[in-house]
Amino acid sequence: MNPIVKMVKPESLRPNSRNDFDPLSEEEYANLKENIALNGILDALTAKKDGTLVTGENRYRIALELKDHADEEVRRRVESIPVRYYMNELTLEEEYDILEGDNLFRRHLTAEQKKERLKKRILRKYKEDLELDNRGGDRKSEASKEEAKSNDHSLTLIENSSVEGNLFSETEGSKIHPESLIAEGDKKSKDQGDLLIGNSSKDLAKKISENENIPFGSAKRYVTELKKELQFKDPKLAKKKAEKKKETVTKKDKVKEFQKKYSKMSASAKKTEVNRLLSKLIGVRKKREKLEAQVTTFLKEDSELVEKLVAVGEKKRVQGLLV
C-alpha cells in the first residue's frame, strides 16, 4: 500500500464516516486527552491521500480541541501531528479492514464486545467459505495439500498470550511464540474427540487463525457459531413472521378489550375518550408526515449524489458501498 509519514496540521484532515465503533467512554477520552497534552501524538494516525482518516479519529479530535489550550507548550505539541498516508488508492474493503483492525487492537473492549466484533469481521471476510462449508463444499484437495505439507514440515499452533482480539501486535511482549504440535497420533485422537467441527471447518479455522492472528481454539469456536447462525438464517425469518402474526392477533385483542370497556362508559366519558383518541391520532399523523418529508428529502439528495458520482466515472465505487 506504500504508506508515507508526514507531519500535518490536524485541520487538514477529516473524519471517516465508515467508523462504526462506539465512542470512547468519558474516562477513556479524558485519559487519552491528558496523555496527548503531556506528550503529543507519538503514534501516527493513518489517512488516505485525500486527507480522510482511516484510523485515529479520537486523537484527531483531541488535537483540534487542544489547539486552543491555555498552555502554549500543549498547543505546540498538536500544531502538527504525524499521519501515515496511503498513497495508493484503497478499496472500501481494504480501508475498513485497516480501520477495524486498528480499533480492535487499541480499544478497551469487553470480552463479549471483542468476540462479537471478531465474529462480525470473520463473517464479513470469510462468508463465502462459511456458506460453502455449510453446503458440504468439497475441500478434499485443500486437505490433501495440507497433509502433504505436514509430512515434510512440522506444523505449529499459534497461541497468542495477549487478549484474543489483538489483531495487530506492536509491542515486544505481545509477539507470537509458535509451539510445536503434539505427536500426529495424539493429534488425530484429539481431532476425533472434537465433535463440534468437521475437517473442512478445521481447515477454515486454521486459515482464519493465521490470517487474523487469533488462537486456533477461538477461531474454531467462531466458525462453529457462525455456521450455525447462517444455517438457521431462514428459520429466524420464519420466527419473525410468526412474531408479526402474533402482534396482529394482539392488536385485535386490544381492540376488542377497548370495545368492551367503551360499552360500559357513561355518555360523557365516551365523548372524552373519543376526543382523546382523535387528538392522539392527529399527533401521530403529523409526526408521520414530518418523517415522510424527511425521507423524501434524503432520497432526492441520495439520487443527486449518485448521479454526480456516476457522471465522473465512479459508478463502481457507488455500487460497492456497504450502506
From TrEMBL:
<dbReference type="InterPro" id="IPR003115">
    <property type="entry name" value="ParB_N"/>
</dbReference>
<feature type="compositionally biased region" description="Basic and acidic residues">
    <location>
        <begin position="133"/>
        <end position="152"/>
    </location>
</feature>
<feature type="domain" description="ParB-like N-terminal">
    <location>
        <begin position="6"/>
        <end position="103"/>
    </location>
</feature>
<protein>
    <submittedName>
        <fullName>ParB-like protein</fullName>
    </submittedName>
</protein>
<feature type="compositionally biased region" description="Basic and acidic residues">
    <location>
        <begin position="174"/>
        <end position="193"/>
    </location>
</feature>
<dbReference type="InterPro" id="IPR036086">
    <property type="entry name" value="ParB/Sulfiredoxin_sf"/>
</dbReference>
<feature type="region of interest" description="Disordered">
    <location>
        <begin position="174"/>
        <end position="195"/>
    </location>
</feature>
<feature type="region of interest" description="Disordered">
    <location>
        <begin position="133"/>
        <end position="156"/>
    </location>
</feature>
